[in-house]
Amino acid sequence: MMPHRHNWTIFLFSFACLTLGTAGAWAETTYDPQVTIPVGEFQMGTEAGTARERPVHTVWVDAFFIDRYEISNTEYETFQPEHRRSQLSACDECPVTLVTWHEAEAFCRQRGGRLPTEAEWEKAARGPNGFAYGFGKQPDVSKANFGKEFQDGTVPVNTYAPNGYGLHQMSGNVWEWVRDWFGAYPEGNTKNPTGSATGAQKVVRGGSWHHSEYYVNTGMRFKLDPNVPLNSLGFRCVQSEPQP
Question: Rg of the chain over CA atoms, in angstroms?
């Protein structure tokens, strides 16, 4: 019996070392590219922000499928091989950045999808419990890539544990384009809102690695000219049917 006990001790020690070695990163690799967000209501907006995040209101969103991860450099370059990577997000599995809203939407369209509406993005980011952050109730720099120096850059898209829906890095790492033109929230409850019919700036969500906890709150919303690419701005896609 002694050799078996010795081997089991070695196994437990090795497993503990492996676990400690992956602290701060999400060790699981999944090949299911999308997550199902169920039909239902959620509370959109936040009192922690400014007038543009208010009023907090009830929104009904139909079920949809959203990418588990931010679109990576490798994925985007199958669509646009000549794309120039940002030096702040240069690895193969780092999120693609330096893409305009039009380029992001074109990528999603060729895949049979589109950019998420602002309401879809926020419902997905909050998770099934409606949390203020993509990783939980309270800000925690050990659970997401935010609050860093600008020169630190991004991390691979599958880094850190996912939220309750199985989505990675909805708070931090890079900002994400959404479909809507920026505008004031409507008064009262809404169903499947799509934002203003026209506008000059598109909504971006989620904050990035060099932003504070204020910006990575899932209720915060910011705006940008759709023709402007940034080192800290990427995207993910949604579909009404799952990707093959």
Answer: 19
Q: How many residues does the chain have?
A: 244
Residue with tokens 């209720």: 219
The pTM (predicted TM-score) of the whole model is: 0.87
CATH number of 30-239: 3.90.1580.10
- Domain extents for the chain? 30-239
Residue 21: helix, strand or coil by DSSP? helix
Mean pLDDT value of segment 48-70: 96
Query: Taking the CB of residue 66, how many other CB atoms lie within 10 A of it?
Result: 24
Place of tokens 């708070």: 171
pLDDT greater than 90 at residue 13: no
pLDDT surpassing 70 at residue 2: no
Count CB-CB contacts under 10 A for residue 214: 12
Residue 25 banded pLDDT, cuts 50, 70, 90: low
For residues 174 and 208, is the Cβ–Cβ distance under 8 A?
A: yes
Contacts of 110 (CB under 8 A, 6+ apart): 79
